[in-house]
């Protein structure tokens, strides 16, 4: 900013007392200079306030958690479609976003509390964020209760408007800083509903930020995990009993045997531990008595859940391991 010679002259004499000066053709007394001096002090104060306000506005980019309803769950935006991190489409980066609930078995016991581990990794990134919510699959209502175990790194925010019953786990500003470059993780507890509420889907969104103080240039990731109630995961159900699966581990064939108490329809499919169906195994009507079904396997080696549903809607789960037949 360039000041005129007259203004420079005025500034140079503001600190001088008990004298008169001629400024722009006007004689200024000591009282005049006192008033002008007060004005400049006030103007300096306004400038300081403006700097503080502008600095505060800029610091809002240093986020203290994701806005509620940003997980990509039904009816929600994710962090790209909400107008924040819009540089790249979701799930187009090289990062890996994952979560594990309890021992990773893929089912829940009503009323039980599980540790939830969320992790996001991407090369050379040192700041990360996440948001997580658990919803009933039947009606998308909030499921269970989140408990913060590390308040320095994560906290819980409520939903709003049509999602005001939902509760979201998200990061704090301190929790966004990676302990080491390339990866960050968060842990909290989740207590399952007190009663069997059917399948529960967990929605997770994560951001790998470039730490430039803006929402631009960041990568966004989403993933889901479906938990099945373990109350229906025992072997002795109303319609089926003596449930067995063999061989273990399996290769190219899997044999399933059980006893049916009546003529009924039975369906079976294979799930990943994240709850995603990868293969429909069988869909048939069986008679009362002993039943044996042999089904071919055409999946990659790994650990899966075999889910079988009988005519009464009861579900039986069995964890199996598939190995390569080569």
Helix content: 10-25%
Whole-number average pLDDT?
78
Oligomerization state: single chain
> How much of the polypeptide forms β-strand, as a percent range?
35-45%
Spans with pLDDT under 50 lasting ≥5 residues? 6-26, 45-61, 231-238
Q: Whole-number radius of gyration?
A: 32 Å
H/E order of the elements? Answer: HEEHEEEEEEEEEEEEEEEEE
Judged by helices, strands and strand pairing, the structural class is: mainly beta
Q: Gap between N and C termini, in Å?
A: 77 Å
Figure out the total of helices. Answer: 2
- The coarse overall form would be elongated
Query: How many strand units?
Result: 19
Describe what is shown at a glance.
The chain is mainly beta and 326 residues long. The chain is 12% helix and 41% strand.
Question: Describe it for me?
Answer:
It is a single chain. Mean pLDDT is 78; it is low at 6-26, 45-61 and 231-238. 12% of the residues lie in helices and 41% in strands. The radius of gyration is 32 Å and the shape is elongated. A six-stranded mixed beta sheet has the order 4-12-11-6-9-8, with no helix packed on it. The longest helix has 30 residues, at 30-59. With 326 residues, the chain is mostly beta strands. It has helices at residues 5-13, 30-59, and strands at 21-23, 26-28, 96-101, 107-108, 113-121, 127-136, 145-147, 154-158, 167-171, 183-191, 200-209, 219-229, 240-246, 253-260, 264-271, 277-286, 289-296, 302-309, 315-322. A hairpin with a 6-residue loop joins strand 13 (240-246) and strand 14. The N and C termini lie far apart (77 Å).
């Amino acid at each position: 900013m360039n000041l005129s010679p007259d203004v420079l002259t005025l500034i140079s004499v503001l600190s001088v007392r008990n004298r008169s000066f001629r400024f722009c053709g006007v004689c200024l007394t000591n009282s005049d200079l006192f008033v002008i001096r007060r004005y400049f002090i006030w103007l300096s104060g306004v400038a300081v306030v403006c700097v503080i306000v502008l600095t505060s506005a800029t610091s809002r980019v240093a986020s203290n958690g994701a806005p509620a309803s940003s997980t990509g769950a039904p009816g929600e935006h994710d962090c790209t479609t909400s107008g924040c991190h819009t540089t790249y489409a979701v799930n187009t980066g090289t990062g890996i976003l994952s979560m594990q609930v309890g021992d990773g078995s893929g089912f829940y016991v009503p009323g039980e509390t599980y540790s939830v581990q969320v992790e996001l990794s991407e090369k050379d990134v040192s700041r990360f964020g996440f948001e997580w919510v658990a919803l009933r699959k039947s009606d998308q209502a909030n499921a269970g209760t989140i408990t913060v175990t590390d308040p320095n790194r994560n906290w819980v925010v409520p939903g709003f408007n049509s999602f005001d019953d939902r509760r979201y786990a998200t990061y704090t500003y301190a929790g966004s800083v990676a302990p080491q470059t390339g990866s960050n993780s968060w842990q909290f507890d989740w207590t399952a509903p007190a009663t069997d509420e059917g399948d529960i889907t967990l929605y997770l969104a994560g951001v790998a930020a470039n730490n430039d103080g803006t929402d631009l240039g960041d990568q966004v990731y989403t993933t889901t995990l479906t938990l099945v109630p373990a109350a229906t995961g025992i072997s002795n159900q109303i319609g089926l009993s003596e449930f067995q699966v063999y061989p273990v581990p399996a290769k190219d064939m899997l044999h399933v045997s059980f006893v049916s108490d009546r003529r009924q329809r039975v369906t079976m499919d294979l799930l990943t531990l994240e709850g995603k169906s990868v293969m429909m195994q069988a869909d048939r009507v069986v008679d009362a008595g002993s039943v044996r079904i042999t089904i071919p396997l055409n999946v990659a080696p790994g650990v899966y859940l075999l889910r079988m549903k009988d005519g009464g809607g009861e579900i039986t789960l069995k964890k199996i391991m598939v190995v390569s037949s080569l």
